[in-house]
Design brief:
Blueprint: E1 7-12, H1 16-28, E2 32-38, H2 42-51, E3 56-58, H3 61-66, E4 72-75, H4 83-91, E5 95-98, H5 106-119, E6 123-125, H6 133-147, E7 173-179, H7 199-202, H8 204-215, E8 219-226, E9 231-238, E10 243-249, E11 259-265, E12 268-273, E13 277-281, E14 288-292, H9 308-326, H10 341-352, H11 362-381, E15 385-386
Parallel strand pairs: 1-2, 1-4, 2-3, 4-5, 5-6, 7-10
Antiparallel strand pairs: 7-11, 8-9, 8-15, 9-10, 11-12, 12-13, 13-14
Length: 392
Protein backbone atom coordinates (compact mmCIF):
# COMPACT_ATOMS: atom_id res chain seq x y z
CA UNK A 1 0.00 0.00 0.00
CA UNK A 2 1.28 3.47 -0.89
CA UNK A 3 2.37 5.47 2.15
CA UNK A 4 3.39 9.10 1.73
CA UNK A 5 4.36 9.58 5.38
CA UNK A 6 8.08 9.65 6.24
CA UNK A 7 9.50 6.37 7.56
CA UNK A 8 10.49 6.37 11.22
CA UNK A 9 14.04 4.98 11.05
CA UNK A 10 16.47 3.77 13.69
CA UNK A 11 20.20 3.44 13.09
CA UNK A 12 21.87 0.58 14.97
CA UNK A 13 25.62 1.09 15.01
CA UNK A 14 26.52 4.79 14.94
CA UNK A 15 30.22 4.62 14.12
CA UNK A 16 32.19 6.40 11.42
CA UNK A 17 30.29 4.90 8.47
CA UNK A 18 26.89 5.85 9.86
CA UNK A 19 28.11 9.31 10.88
CA UNK A 20 29.52 9.98 7.41
CA UNK A 21 26.63 8.62 5.34
CA UNK A 22 23.43 7.18 6.83
CA UNK A 23 22.83 9.57 9.73
CA UNK A 24 23.18 12.86 7.80
CA UNK A 25 21.16 11.42 4.92
CA UNK A 26 18.29 10.26 7.16
CA UNK A 27 18.39 13.52 9.14
CA UNK A 28 17.81 15.61 6.01
CA UNK A 29 15.56 13.27 4.00
CA UNK A 30 11.92 14.23 3.51
CA UNK A 31 11.17 10.49 3.26
CA UNK A 32 12.46 9.63 6.73
CA UNK A 33 12.40 10.67 10.36
CA UNK A 34 15.58 9.89 12.28
CA UNK A 35 13.78 8.34 15.22
CA UNK A 36 16.48 6.47 17.19
CA UNK A 37 20.25 6.22 17.32
CA UNK A 38 21.52 3.04 18.98
CA UNK A 39 25.12 2.30 19.93
CA UNK A 40 26.98 0.72 22.84
CA UNK A 41 29.19 3.82 22.99
CA UNK A 42 27.76 6.73 24.97
CA UNK A 43 30.29 9.00 23.24
CA UNK A 44 28.84 8.03 19.85
CA UNK A 45 25.31 8.66 21.12
CA UNK A 46 26.29 12.05 22.52
CA UNK A 47 27.72 13.00 19.12
CA UNK A 48 24.50 11.82 17.44
CA UNK A 49 22.36 13.92 19.77
CA UNK A 50 24.46 16.98 19.02
CA UNK A 51 24.83 16.59 15.25
CA UNK A 52 21.79 14.68 14.03
CA UNK A 53 19.04 15.34 16.61
CA UNK A 54 17.30 11.93 16.75
CA UNK A 55 14.08 11.69 18.72
CA UNK A 56 15.64 9.00 20.93
CA UNK A 57 18.97 7.35 21.73
CA UNK A 58 19.59 4.01 23.42
CA UNK A 59 22.43 1.48 23.93
CA UNK A 60 20.45 -1.74 23.28
CA UNK A 61 19.32 -2.86 19.84
CA UNK A 62 16.69 -5.07 21.47
CA UNK A 63 14.93 -1.92 22.69
CA UNK A 64 14.96 -0.50 19.16
CA UNK A 65 13.27 -3.59 17.73
CA UNK A 66 10.69 -3.58 20.54
CA UNK A 67 9.79 0.09 20.02
CA UNK A 68 6.41 0.19 18.20
CA UNK A 69 7.21 3.65 16.82
CA UNK A 70 10.21 2.39 14.81
CA UNK A 71 9.25 1.27 11.29
CA UNK A 72 12.66 0.58 9.78
CA UNK A 73 16.19 -0.22 10.94
CA UNK A 74 19.48 0.73 9.34
CA UNK A 75 21.97 -1.84 10.59
CA UNK A 76 25.41 -0.22 10.28
CA UNK A 77 27.42 -2.34 12.73
CA UNK A 78 30.40 -4.46 11.73
CA UNK A 79 29.61 -7.79 10.10
CA UNK A 80 29.83 -9.51 13.51
CA UNK A 81 26.31 -8.36 14.38
CA UNK A 82 23.81 -9.25 11.67
CA UNK A 83 21.55 -12.25 12.18
CA UNK A 84 20.11 -11.51 15.66
CA UNK A 85 19.02 -7.99 14.70
CA UNK A 86 17.64 -9.00 11.30
CA UNK A 87 15.76 -12.00 12.74
CA UNK A 88 14.18 -9.92 15.50
CA UNK A 89 13.28 -7.11 13.11
CA UNK A 90 11.73 -9.58 10.66
CA UNK A 91 9.64 -11.12 13.43
CA UNK A 92 8.46 -7.62 14.38
CA UNK A 93 7.64 -6.81 10.74
CA UNK A 94 10.16 -3.97 10.51
CA UNK A 95 11.99 -3.05 7.31
CA UNK A 96 15.77 -3.53 7.32
CA UNK A 97 18.62 -1.81 5.48
CA UNK A 98 21.82 -3.67 6.35
CA UNK A 99 25.38 -2.76 5.48
CA UNK A 100 27.42 -5.22 3.48
CA UNK A 101 28.57 -7.91 3.80
CA UNK A 102 25.25 -9.55 4.48
CA UNK A 103 26.74 -12.11 6.88
CA UNK A 104 29.95 -13.24 8.53
CA UNK A 105 29.57 -16.91 7.55
CA UNK A 106 27.88 -18.95 4.84
CA UNK A 107 25.58 -20.62 7.36
CA UNK A 108 24.46 -17.28 8.75
CA UNK A 109 23.84 -15.95 5.24
CA UNK A 110 21.52 -18.86 4.43
CA UNK A 111 19.58 -18.44 7.68
CA UNK A 112 19.16 -14.70 7.09
CA UNK A 113 17.76 -15.37 3.63
CA UNK A 114 15.16 -17.79 5.00
CA UNK A 115 14.07 -15.35 7.71
CA UNK A 116 13.79 -12.38 5.35
CA UNK A 117 11.93 -14.25 2.63
CA UNK A 118 9.53 -15.84 5.14
CA UNK A 119 8.72 -12.47 6.70
CA UNK A 120 8.42 -10.61 3.40
CA UNK A 121 9.77 -7.40 4.92
CA UNK A 122 11.31 -4.60 2.81
CA UNK A 123 14.99 -5.47 2.81
CA UNK A 124 18.05 -3.87 1.23
CA UNK A 125 21.77 -4.63 1.46
CA UNK A 126 24.12 -1.66 1.22
CA UNK A 127 25.83 -2.42 -2.07
CA UNK A 128 25.66 1.32 -2.66
CA UNK A 129 27.74 1.40 -5.84
CA UNK A 130 24.69 0.17 -7.75
CA UNK A 131 23.16 3.58 -7.01
CA UNK A 132 26.23 5.70 -7.85
CA UNK A 133 25.38 8.10 -10.71
CA UNK A 134 28.52 7.16 -12.63
CA UNK A 135 27.85 3.43 -12.46
CA UNK A 136 24.14 3.83 -13.23
CA UNK A 137 25.08 5.63 -16.45
CA UNK A 138 27.84 3.14 -17.23
CA UNK A 139 25.45 0.24 -16.68
CA UNK A 140 22.89 1.79 -19.01
CA UNK A 141 25.50 2.43 -21.72
CA UNK A 142 27.14 -0.99 -21.44
CA UNK A 143 23.98 -3.10 -21.26
CA UNK A 144 22.45 -1.24 -24.22
CA UNK A 145 25.61 -1.85 -26.23
CA UNK A 146 25.71 -5.53 -25.29
CA UNK A 147 22.04 -6.09 -26.13
CA UNK A 148 21.73 -3.77 -29.13
CA UNK A 149 25.23 -3.20 -30.58
CA UNK A 150 25.38 -0.64 -33.39
CA UNK A 151 27.65 -1.14 -36.43
CA UNK A 152 31.01 0.60 -36.09
CA UNK A 153 32.11 1.94 -39.47
CA UNK A 154 35.60 2.94 -38.31
CA UNK A 155 36.45 -0.38 -36.62
CA UNK A 156 39.55 -1.83 -38.27
CA UNK A 157 38.62 -5.22 -39.68
CA UNK A 158 42.00 -6.31 -41.01
CA UNK A 159 41.01 -9.64 -42.55
CA UNK A 160 37.42 -8.80 -43.48
CA UNK A 161 35.65 -11.81 -44.94
CA UNK A 162 38.75 -13.93 -44.29
CA UNK A 163 38.57 -13.33 -40.56
CA UNK A 164 37.76 -16.58 -38.70
CA UNK A 165 34.53 -16.85 -36.74
CA UNK A 166 34.94 -17.35 -33.00
CA UNK A 167 32.26 -18.66 -30.66
CA UNK A 168 33.35 -16.23 -27.94
CA UNK A 169 32.91 -13.18 -30.19
CA UNK A 170 30.91 -10.52 -28.34
CA UNK A 171 31.36 -12.08 -24.91
CA UNK A 172 31.83 -9.36 -22.25
CA UNK A 173 34.80 -8.88 -20.00
CA UNK A 174 35.10 -6.60 -16.97
CA UNK A 175 38.25 -5.48 -15.19
CA UNK A 176 38.10 -3.77 -11.77
CA UNK A 177 41.17 -2.26 -10.13
CA UNK A 178 40.98 -1.17 -6.49
CA UNK A 179 43.73 1.08 -5.08
CA UNK A 180 43.60 1.31 -1.28
CA UNK A 181 45.95 2.40 1.50
CA UNK A 182 45.79 0.10 4.50
CA UNK A 183 47.33 2.70 6.82
CA UNK A 184 43.91 4.39 6.76
CA UNK A 185 41.98 1.31 7.91
CA UNK A 186 40.09 1.19 11.22
CA UNK A 187 41.40 -1.17 13.88
CA UNK A 188 38.43 -3.56 13.80
CA UNK A 189 39.57 -4.65 10.33
CA UNK A 190 42.56 -6.40 11.91
CA UNK A 191 40.45 -8.21 14.54
CA UNK A 192 39.78 -11.77 13.43
CA UNK A 193 36.70 -12.00 15.62
CA UNK A 194 35.18 -8.95 13.89
CA UNK A 195 36.25 -9.68 10.30
CA UNK A 196 37.49 -13.29 10.05
CA UNK A 197 37.86 -13.21 6.26
CA UNK A 198 39.24 -9.68 5.95
CA UNK A 199 38.83 -7.58 2.78
CA UNK A 200 38.07 -10.67 0.68
CA UNK A 201 34.61 -10.46 2.22
CA UNK A 202 33.93 -7.02 3.71
CA UNK A 203 35.34 -5.12 0.71
CA UNK A 204 35.21 -7.61 -2.17
CA UNK A 205 31.43 -8.01 -1.96
CA UNK A 206 31.02 -4.48 -3.37
CA UNK A 207 32.85 -5.49 -6.51
CA UNK A 208 31.44 -8.98 -7.02
CA UNK A 209 28.00 -7.35 -6.84
CA UNK A 210 28.90 -4.78 -9.52
CA UNK A 211 30.35 -7.49 -11.78
CA UNK A 212 27.16 -9.59 -11.47
CA UNK A 213 25.02 -6.52 -12.19
CA UNK A 214 27.04 -5.39 -15.20
CA UNK A 215 27.37 -8.86 -16.71
CA UNK A 216 23.69 -9.77 -16.25
CA UNK A 217 24.75 -13.42 -16.19
CA UNK A 218 25.05 -16.13 -13.58
CA UNK A 219 28.55 -16.55 -12.08
CA UNK A 220 29.62 -20.19 -12.18
CA UNK A 221 33.32 -20.43 -11.27
CA UNK A 222 35.90 -18.44 -9.29
CA UNK A 223 39.67 -18.59 -9.01
CA UNK A 224 41.62 -16.39 -6.60
CA UNK A 225 45.09 -15.67 -5.24
CA UNK A 226 46.05 -13.50 -2.28
CA UNK A 227 49.11 -12.45 -0.32
CA UNK A 228 47.17 -12.10 2.94
CA UNK A 229 45.10 -9.05 3.85
CA UNK A 230 46.55 -6.58 1.38
CA UNK A 231 46.59 -8.01 -2.15
CA UNK A 232 43.91 -10.05 -3.92
CA UNK A 233 43.33 -11.16 -7.49
CA UNK A 234 40.01 -12.79 -8.41
CA UNK A 235 38.65 -14.06 -11.72
CA UNK A 236 34.96 -14.91 -12.10
CA UNK A 237 33.63 -16.95 -15.05
CA UNK A 238 29.98 -16.51 -16.05
CA UNK A 239 27.47 -18.93 -17.53
CA UNK A 240 27.53 -17.45 -21.06
CA UNK A 241 31.33 -17.13 -21.17
CA UNK A 242 31.95 -13.66 -19.76
CA UNK A 243 34.89 -13.01 -17.46
CA UNK A 244 35.36 -10.53 -14.60
CA UNK A 245 38.79 -9.76 -13.14
CA UNK A 246 39.03 -7.99 -9.77
CA UNK A 247 42.38 -6.75 -8.50
CA UNK A 248 42.44 -5.28 -4.98
CA UNK A 249 45.64 -3.75 -3.63
CA UNK A 250 45.85 -2.10 -0.21
CA UNK A 251 49.50 -1.13 -0.64
CA UNK A 252 48.47 1.87 -2.72
CA UNK A 253 47.93 5.59 -2.17
CA UNK A 254 45.00 7.93 -1.55
CA UNK A 255 46.77 10.41 -3.79
CA UNK A 256 45.33 8.44 -6.74
CA UNK A 257 41.69 7.44 -7.41
CA UNK A 258 40.54 4.31 -5.61
CA UNK A 259 38.46 2.54 -8.26
CA UNK A 260 38.69 1.91 -11.99
CA UNK A 261 35.97 -0.03 -13.83
CA UNK A 262 36.49 -1.16 -17.44
CA UNK A 263 33.73 -3.00 -19.33
CA UNK A 264 34.41 -4.45 -22.80
CA UNK A 265 32.33 -6.38 -25.31
CA UNK A 266 30.95 -6.32 -28.86
CA UNK A 267 33.80 -4.08 -29.97
CA UNK A 268 32.94 -1.43 -27.40
CA UNK A 269 34.36 -0.10 -24.18
CA UNK A 270 33.05 1.75 -21.11
CA UNK A 271 35.50 2.96 -18.46
CA UNK A 272 34.63 4.62 -15.14
CA UNK A 273 37.30 6.58 -13.30
CA UNK A 274 36.47 6.62 -9.58
CA UNK A 275 32.86 7.79 -10.06
CA UNK A 276 33.89 11.17 -11.55
CA UNK A 277 34.37 10.44 -15.26
CA UNK A 278 33.09 7.95 -17.83
CA UNK A 279 34.86 7.39 -21.15
CA UNK A 280 33.39 5.24 -23.92
CA UNK A 281 34.73 3.94 -27.22
CA UNK A 282 32.97 2.13 -30.04
CA UNK A 283 29.45 2.63 -28.67
CA UNK A 284 26.94 3.55 -31.32
CA UNK A 285 29.73 3.67 -33.87
CA UNK A 286 31.34 6.67 -32.14
CA UNK A 287 35.08 6.85 -31.50
CA UNK A 288 34.71 8.02 -27.91
CA UNK A 289 32.66 10.16 -25.57
CA UNK A 290 33.38 11.69 -22.15
CA UNK A 291 30.87 12.16 -19.34
CA UNK A 292 31.78 14.14 -16.22
CA UNK A 293 29.94 13.31 -12.98
CA UNK A 294 29.59 15.88 -10.15
CA UNK A 295 31.35 15.34 -6.83
CA UNK A 296 29.49 14.66 -3.59
CA UNK A 297 31.79 17.00 -1.63
CA UNK A 298 33.99 19.74 -3.06
CA UNK A 299 35.99 21.87 -0.60
CA UNK A 300 37.77 23.77 -3.40
CA UNK A 301 35.40 24.44 -6.34
CA UNK A 302 37.85 26.93 -7.81
CA UNK A 303 40.44 24.13 -8.24
CA UNK A 304 40.21 21.58 -11.07
CA UNK A 305 37.26 23.19 -12.80
CA UNK A 306 37.70 20.90 -15.80
CA UNK A 307 36.12 18.17 -13.68
CA UNK A 308 36.47 14.47 -14.21
CA UNK A 309 39.71 12.65 -13.44
CA UNK A 310 42.00 15.62 -14.09
CA UNK A 311 39.90 17.87 -11.87
CA UNK A 312 39.76 15.24 -9.14
CA UNK A 313 43.56 14.90 -9.13
CA UNK A 314 43.99 18.68 -8.84
CA UNK A 315 41.53 18.87 -5.96
CA UNK A 316 43.10 15.99 -4.09
CA UNK A 317 46.54 17.56 -4.50
CA UNK A 318 45.14 20.78 -2.99
CA UNK A 319 43.65 18.82 -0.06
CA UNK A 320 46.96 17.03 0.57
CA UNK A 321 48.81 20.33 0.65
CA UNK A 322 46.24 21.82 3.04
CA UNK A 323 46.49 18.76 5.25
CA UNK A 324 50.28 19.03 5.45
CA UNK A 325 50.07 22.71 6.42
CA UNK A 326 47.45 22.04 9.09
CA UNK A 327 48.85 18.77 10.42
CA UNK A 328 45.62 17.02 9.43
CA UNK A 329 46.47 14.26 6.93
CA UNK A 330 42.83 13.09 6.89
CA UNK A 331 42.07 16.13 4.73
CA UNK A 332 43.20 14.07 1.75
CA UNK A 333 39.66 12.64 1.83
CA UNK A 334 37.84 15.99 1.87
CA UNK A 335 37.06 15.59 -1.84
CA UNK A 336 34.14 13.16 -1.87
CA UNK A 337 32.88 11.20 -4.86
CA UNK A 338 29.27 10.07 -5.11
CA UNK A 339 29.27 6.32 -4.44
CA UNK A 340 25.49 6.14 -4.26
CA UNK A 341 24.92 5.90 -0.48
CA UNK A 342 22.14 8.49 -0.42
CA UNK A 343 20.41 7.22 -3.56
CA UNK A 344 20.41 3.63 -2.30
CA UNK A 345 18.89 4.67 1.02
CA UNK A 346 16.31 6.84 -0.75
CA UNK A 347 15.35 3.88 -2.94
CA UNK A 348 14.98 1.71 0.18
CA UNK A 349 12.73 4.31 1.81
CA UNK A 350 10.60 4.35 -1.34
CA UNK A 351 10.31 0.56 -1.11
CA UNK A 352 9.15 0.84 2.51
CA UNK A 353 6.55 3.41 1.47
CA UNK A 354 5.28 1.11 -1.29
CA UNK A 355 6.73 3.17 -4.13
CA UNK A 356 9.23 0.70 -5.60
CA UNK A 357 11.17 -2.52 -5.23
CA UNK A 358 14.41 -3.18 -3.40
CA UNK A 359 17.45 -1.75 -5.22
CA UNK A 360 19.58 -4.61 -3.83
CA UNK A 361 17.51 -7.34 -2.28
CA UNK A 362 18.57 -10.43 -0.42
CA UNK A 363 18.92 -12.53 -3.60
CA UNK A 364 21.38 -10.17 -5.30
CA UNK A 365 23.34 -9.69 -2.09
CA UNK A 366 23.62 -13.42 -1.47
CA UNK A 367 24.88 -14.03 -5.01
CA UNK A 368 27.62 -11.41 -4.54
CA UNK A 369 28.51 -12.86 -1.14
CA UNK A 370 28.65 -16.41 -2.49
CA UNK A 371 31.19 -15.29 -5.09
CA UNK A 372 33.27 -13.85 -2.23
CA UNK A 373 33.14 -17.09 -0.28
CA UNK A 374 34.08 -19.02 -3.43
CA UNK A 375 37.08 -16.69 -3.82
CA UNK A 376 38.05 -17.20 -0.18
CA UNK A 377 37.93 -20.97 -0.61
CA UNK A 378 39.84 -20.79 -3.89
CA UNK A 379 42.66 -18.75 -2.34
CA UNK A 380 42.96 -21.13 0.62
CA UNK A 381 42.72 -24.37 -1.38
CA UNK A 382 44.66 -23.11 -4.41
CA UNK A 383 42.11 -24.32 -6.95
CA UNK A 384 39.12 -23.08 -8.99
CA UNK A 385 35.87 -23.24 -7.02
CA UNK A 386 32.44 -23.71 -8.59
CA UNK A 387 29.56 -21.59 -7.27
CA UNK A 388 27.63 -24.82 -6.86
CA UNK A 389 30.05 -25.68 -4.04
CA UNK A 390 28.89 -22.62 -2.07
CA UNK A 391 25.49 -23.04 -0.33
CA UNK A 392 22.69 -20.75 -1.46
Amino acid sequence: MLNVEPVRMAVVGCGSLAQATHLPMLARSSKAILHTCCDVSEAALALCRERFRPLKTCPRWEDVVADPEVEGICLATTEKLREPVIAAAAEAGKAVYVEKPLAQTLEEMVRIRRVVEAAGIPFCVGHNRRAAPALLLAHCLFRHHMEQPAPCSWRWDREGAERPRLAEDGRPSIALRINDDWHSWKKWVFDGTQAPYGPMLFEMSHFTDICNWMMAEEPVEVIALETGMLNHAVIVRYRQGGLATITMCANGSWGYPKELYEMMGNGGMVAVYDFVEIVTAGLGGRVNERHVVPLARDPCPEIGQEGGLAGWLAKRRWCAEQGMREGRPERILDVGVDKGHSRLMEAFLEEVRGQGSSPCGVGSAILATRVCFAAIRSAVERRPVLLSEVPA
